[in-house]
Automatic annotation (TrEMBL):
Belongs to the binding-protein-dependent transport system permease family. The keyword Zinc does not apply. Keywords: Cell inner membrane, Cell membrane, Membrane, Transmembrane, Transmembrane helix, Transport. GO terms for biological process: microcin transport; transmembrane transport. GO terms for cellular component: plasma membrane. It comes from Mesorhizobium metallidurans STM 2683. It is a multi-pass membrane protein. Residues 131-346 form the ABC transmembrane type-1 domain. Gene3D superfamilies: MetI-like. It comes from the Bacteria. This is Putative oligopeptide transport protein (ABC superfamily, membrane).
Amino acid sequence: MGAYILRRILLMVPTLFGIMAISFAVIQFAPGGPVEQVIARLTNQGGSDRLGSGGGDTGGSNFDVAGDVGSKYRGAQGLDPEFIAKLEKQFGFDKPPLERFGMMLWNYIRFDFGDSYFRDISVLDLILEKMPVSISIGLWITLLSYLISIPLGIRKAIKDGSAFDVWTSGVVIVGYAIPGFLFAILLMVLFAGGSFYDWFPLRGIVSDNWDQLSWPDKILDYFWHMTLPLTALVLSAFATTTLLTKNSFLEEIRKQYVVTARAKGLSERQVLYGHVFRNAMLIVIAGFPGAFISAFFTGSLLIENIFSLDGLGLLGFNSVLQRDYPVVFANLYITSLIGLFIGLLSDLMYTWVDPRIDFERRDI
């Protein structure tokens, strides 16, 4: 197993390199980069006057506004070429793309992500500041969906075709069909001071006076704020995992080894949890990395926006809009790295659930 783990870790290097290289290449052709963002801000706020007075955005230097000077940046006509050159140097665009990409990789290997373009904070500190919110959402959604879905899926498989199976399938299908963000808006209208009840807070993960609360009150305040976001996110995750669990159990229950186990006189509980469970859970475990990553990053983006939860999803979205490339690439790098390691963890869980699986004998 040690050799397999080592091979998987070594394969992460070219995978991560490919992700970063493709993303970097795409960014080179994306309009509205950080230089254009600064130009737009200056021109929209009276850029000529501010440039003449040596505004803080230009590092305190005075720049003359020339006549219609050609520029490769949209909206830069009339700005001093020296000012544009200093902006390019500030953001690192005075170097060739390959050199910038090489420097970025070297820094990222050492987890040196530099500083945000438009925030007075290092990228790593900014990500660590937002990460607790996303980790909290991802862990709770994954835990709740599995705790609900696995027992329900098993029960549905045992009662396949019964009234219980039919009405729970209806609930599951409706839950799967409703987008999480739409259900979140419905919850806000019903329970967060909309047209009906004002039971839950509308924004944030804790109250403003959270530091002043006792530990029991802090826990209650945290869950009070998380109730609506978690409910909205659990709906779709719960539906998918439930159907996956049911179908896996149905497939295993119909196999010959189950008939043999029953013929030997084993109880239904021994058959289900002593024989069927391990085999049926393999496909569910295989979906764990995707479920966690979806809840950790992608799935929480809209929910973070709706409930004003300041996590990585909202940070990444705003950084893309602002063209804050250090934050965008650092977020992508950390996300990809976590995803790759969770994929490895999923394979190790395979061997724990079913010792017959031996990755050492397989070619990767």
